[in-house]
């Protein structure tokens, strides 16, 4: 009667269950990606708010058409005026248009009992977001008031100061959370890889006993850790992309805050972060097991 030979699969160096590791790293990177998307959309929202800052420049009365054209060219040449393509964001509102707008909003025709239009012609200047800080806006107001033909310059100063203050506070809070989250995720990935390598500690010692060099022992582990980080980064990026498409489909207003360039940079960063953290965590864990005595391995 033939004897059945049971083949035992030998354990290879660096061959440890990696599904759990990839899943854990992917999940951790996905959380980082979600927070990164929050930062991107918050920054885009901040830019949208800053892009809406306008100044109303009221003009002296009885200016000629030539003077009005000259004033518009003067305003368009200012470095703090926003541009959309090649067009300066400067628009003219006549006092007649202002009276019509007031009538449409309030339903009251003040010209009936005043007998005259007290409003002034005005230019509305949209300010470039790079010049949206409160000190710069005050400086811009003073600069515009010095232009010949300008009667008065107005903007909602208290609202702008409140917006800038809140944006600064929110940015600091989000940055602090991002640093804390990155630290927590790094510790989580590090512990996951250490646990995965724990089962290989005796194999590492066996390789040392038969004369394996540190580089020879570390190489398969580091190669696998690097690939795990890269694969996890791609998985996290794919999940993030799918979630984004779903969110944009369900909430169409989010399209206004979409920034594909920064999003792709974030996804690339997830791959790099996964590679670096996985590689370094594996390197530290292997170095630890290489230095332990036989008694300390138990």
* Gap from first CA to last CA: 42 Å
Strand line-up in the sheet with most strands: 4-5-1-6
Instruction: Count the DSSP helices.
Output: 9
Number of β-strand runs:
6
Give the helix level as a range of percent. 55-70%
Shape, per Cα inertia axes? rod-shaped
Give the helix/strand class. Answer: alpha+beta
> What's the structural domain tally?
2
**What is the mean pLDDT?**
78
User: What share of the residues does DSSP label as strand, in percent?
Assistant: 5-15%
What is the alpha-carbon Rg in Å? 32 Å
Largest sheet: 4 strands, antiparallel
| Secondary-structure element series | HEHEEEHHEHEHHHH
User: Regions with pLDDT < 50 over 5+ consecutive residues?
Assistant: 1-11
Give a verbal description of the structure.
This protein is α+β, with helices and mostly antiparallel strands and 298 residues long. It folds into two domains: 19-47 and 163-297, no CATH class; 54-154, Alpha-Beta Plaits, CATH 3.30.70.3040. It has nine helices and six strands. The strands form two sheets. It has a four-stranded antiparallel sheet. Strands 2-3 form a two-stranded antiparallel ribbon. The model is unreliable at 1-11 (pLDDT under 50).
